[in-house]
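Figure 2 data, in text form.
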Amino acid sequence: MADAALLELVNIETSYGLSRVLFGVSLTLAKGEVVSLLGRNGMGKTTTVRSIMGLTPAGAGSIRFEGREIRALAAYRVAKLGIGLVPEGRQVFPNLTTRENLVATAANRSRAADPWTLEKVCALFPRLAERADSMANLLSGGEQQMLAIGRALMTNPRLLILDEATEGLAPTIRDEIWRCLQSLRARGQSILVIDKNIEALMRIADRHYIIERGRVVWSGTSPQLAAAPEIQHRYLGV
């Protein structure tokens, strides 16, 4: 793990109108690291992601990406810096084919030596190759999630963020998504992931942050989380 943070949040405060959601959230993620955001529903995980992406701008605090302050940047500028988002609910382009969804976002602004291409994404998810000419709204939920991940990878992101990576998917599809994330980890892809499958996250993630009512209440490594069942029970309801 690199010493310098790829992503650093310091005392982020975010509101929806007059309703404060985040109360001083701080976290770091180093290049090549996989970090999870954990917590029950409604505790601020998605709002943290939206703050990073500039979709719901933070009202206070600092968000730095590769050392650059990005808190005040528009969402499209954040994306151009190299942050790829797989949003909750997938949000693929329904009236485009699978292939069109993938090529529509293709870019290599970071000038990666081995960039993601249509062929590489289809090798990662063979189902997408099989459904290349199908309209995205005709894909299954699992196929749409694969497409959403592939679409984000086609931007060749320095940081990949997944909000609810496997929510609502069949067990076999969940396994395929976790296999994909393990493969990305082996490639050195930096990942911030939200999901409810604690056991799977402890297998692939280096570190974890637990958010409760808009605050980080615990952080630590996978071995530390595994050794703290009381923390899991208190904040995650397992």
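Caption note: Residues 129 and 238 are 38 Å apart (CA to CA).
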